[in-house]
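Memo to structure team: turn this sequence into structure tokens by end of day. - J.P.
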Amino acid sequence: MNPREQRRLIGRNLKLRRLDLGFTKKAVADAAGVNIKTVTRIENGQSSLPLECAPSVVKFLDLGEDIQVLLSPLPRPWGKGVLNQD
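Reply from structure team:
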């Protein structure tokens, strides 16, 4: 996977998880210590998640401790819960 594909996958996963949990971009930005525009660029795959922010974002979005989870497809959100669709 090239860096561009990684950025897109990470951004998509962050956005899906944020929306599934009902968090705003501002809440994620505050947890990461970045501004809202940065979160928008990350979610759109235009910018990389700063390495120093990754652990706090993963923890805030309740994705565990391993930042590698962002490089794996997440289950798709369905309403307020998560539904595994294989």
